[in-house]
Amino acid sequence: MVRFTHSNDRGWFRSLFVHKVEPRTDTHSNLLSKKETSSLYKIQYHNVKPEYLEAYNSLSAEVQNRLHHDKDYPCEVVGSWNTWYGEQDQAVHLWRYKGGYPALTECLNKLRQNKEYLDFRKERSKMLISRRNQLLLEFSFWNEPAPRPGPNIYELRTYRLRPGTMIEWGNHWARAIKHRQENQEAVGGFFTQIGELYVVHHLWAYKDLQSREETRNFAWQKPGWDTAVYYTGNGTNLKIDILSHYTSLYLFRVQSR
């Protein structure tokens, strides 16, 4: 008869449930992001005082248009939205810096010397309750965000992952994204580099809420979509929390150069 000590018994029991994790040989940014581009993205969340929202939108659109079309600044506005459903009186801006961190640094240095922009920031500060931002990279298997005819509603789904599961998330969604392309609803997929870490953003576009419902229902008819949702959905070890925002784009939109 084989007898186990208390410590050996625990080790044997735990070995039934502990999975071997292969060591990573590179960073998330190198394993998951696009190699053919060096674009860096910044997402901004501005919580606006309700009485200033209209003035904020007008002022921000004016300054963004100037920066977007000024070739001396290596940045462009991918999109700007106001929250329709979700956190109210909020503006969300997505910027792209072609050239990565050097482009971001160049842009910031120039803006520090731009009196007009500094005046804008001072005026804008009177309208805000709070603000935060994140630096992002785009997943290699997603579309690069591009202008599209509108008006549309945009859904930003934000996922906070358990540390160590980003690669697994990417592997599942590299297969799952093919089920969400037929209606061209996939706008972009990103993961954080600076700011809150282990955060993923998926951005979708729909003509309206009815179109959103029909498109999402259609995905469930495709073999493999249910598996993707199961492995990246609530109740699994992969995902901690989901926040969803439905944002109206037609308040102001800056087209690409």
TrEMBL record:
Gene3D superfamilies on file: 3.30.70.100
Localisation: Mitochondrion matrix
Domain NIPSNAP: 154-235
Pfam family, one: NIPSNAP
Any single GO CC term annotated in Swiss-Prot or TrEMBL for this entry: mitochondrial matrix
Principal location class: mitochondrion
Keywords: Autophagy, Mitochondrion, Transit peptide
Domain of life: Eukaryota
Record GO biological process: mitophagy
Statement: the UniProt record of this protein carries the keyword Disulfide bond: no
GTP-binding as UniProt keyword: no
Stated family: Belongs to the NipSnap family.
Chain's role: Protein involved in mitophagy. Accumulates on the mitochondria surface in response to mitochondrial depolarization and acts as a 'eat me' signal by recruiting proteins involved in selective autophagy.
Protein name listed in UniProt: Protein NipSnap1-like
Organism name: Scleropages formosus (Asian bonytongue)
